[in-house]
Design brief:
Blueprint lengths: L1 E2 L2 E2 L8 H7 L7 E5 L2 E3 L14 E6 L5
Parallel strand pairs: 1-5
Antiparallel strand pairs: 1-2, 3-4, 3-5
Length: about 60
């Protein structure tokens, strides 16, 4: 599976919220795309992940 363009090992039973926990990321502060499915911040479901999934985690950045 790929996360933000990098190969990431898939573990049996891994879920999307579990993956975010591995990265220390709060589901309320990021948007996630799994393959073609988009999950807005605060609406991320705890879906099971598959070995071939492509995941993009997008953090909101503040700046000027």
């Amino acid at each position: 599976m790929q996360v933000n363009g990098q190969t990431h090992p898939h573990q049996e039973g891994l879920t999307l919220l579990g993956l975010l926990g591995e990265f220390g990321v709060s589901a309320d502060r990021v948007a996630v795309m799994v393959n073609e499915q988009i999950y807005p911040a605060g609406q991320i479901l705890d879906v099971p992940l598959q070995p071939g999934d492509v995941i993009e985690i997008v953090k909101a950045m503040q700046g000027g």
